[in-house]
Amino acid sequence: MIKILGIISGIICTLILFVNLLSYLLQDIYFKINILNVRKLINKILPILSKYNRFLLISCFIFFLIHITCLFKFITFFNLNIFILTLLIIIITFDLNLFSKVTSHYLRKFASYIIIIFVLFHIFKF
């Protein structure tokens, strides 16, 4: 039962991280594409994702902690949970606007891309 809870919380955390990545991908697409219909669609979606970004990151952090605690005794080899947790803390720290807005935006975007790579390695390692 505890292992299933850990797996479900890990899946929820992964989905939230993909939504976070989607917001940064949509921002990049918005600046690269000059098609008016695509820009209008992104203008409708992006404010919703930006509004709930901080709440989603904090809930992802909570679900990730549940995932780690539930699956800690089942892990017998080195995994990427430490790297994922570190990057998640970095993203949350940059989201609190401790740095200049431009610097923290680029650092959050870079950390979001890197954390998805670590999550994919973590998923396909099993």
Write up what this structure looks like.
It contains 5 helices and no strands. The protein starts with a helix and ends with a helix. It has one domain. It is 84% helix and 0% strand. Helix 4 runs antiparallel to helix 5. The chain is an all-alpha fold.
Describe the SSE topology.
Layout: H1 2-32, H2 36-51, H3 53-71, H4 81-95, H5 101-125
Order of helices and strands: HHHHH
In terms of quaternary structure, what is this? Answer: single chain
Q: What is the overall silhouette?
A: elongated
- The count of DSSP E runs of length 2 or more, i.e. the number of strands, is 0
Which band does the percent of strand residues land in? under 5%
SS content category:
mainly alpha
Rg, rounded, reads: 16 Å
Q: Biggest sheet, open or closed, and with what strands and sense?
A: none
Helix count from the secondary structure assignment? 5
Helix content: over 70%
Low-confidence stretches: none
The total number of structural domains is 1
Average pLDDT over all residues: 80
Q: N-to-C terminal Cα separation, in Å?
A: 19 Å
